[in-house]
Amino acid sequence: MSENALPADRSARSERIAARTRNSDWRKPPRRIETAECITCDSCLRGCPAEFGAIVDRGLDVVIIPELCSGCPACVLECPVDCIYVDEDWSPSDDSLWNLVEFPAETR
Ligand code: SF4
Ligand code: SF4
Q: Disordered: where is this region (predicted)?
């Protein structure tokens, strides 16, 4: 492995971001945050494992990128108001959302 190589899990996230696709091996549906109930405490954002990094803070709200969300569901355990729901009918994220997603610094 080269000095700058990412661990496999972080590299997989980078590939998902580049391809804008969800891992087809993930059996659980992604989660979504109900904005009307969310108190924007950011606990879920801190609780989402780095290999997924699926939650972004948009300033006024916090959103889950479904393509990056494995449905694990670590964030649900962190949420104090229980407003993170299964999203069976998720739709692909648009450009404005992808623009908020950061690649791991090592890939820049
Ligand atoms: S379900 Fe897991 S991967 Fe998805 S946003 Fe929550 S913590 Fe992150
Ligand atoms: S943990 Fe719950 S209340 Fe806090 S930002 Fe996340 S979804 Fe919102």
A: 1-28
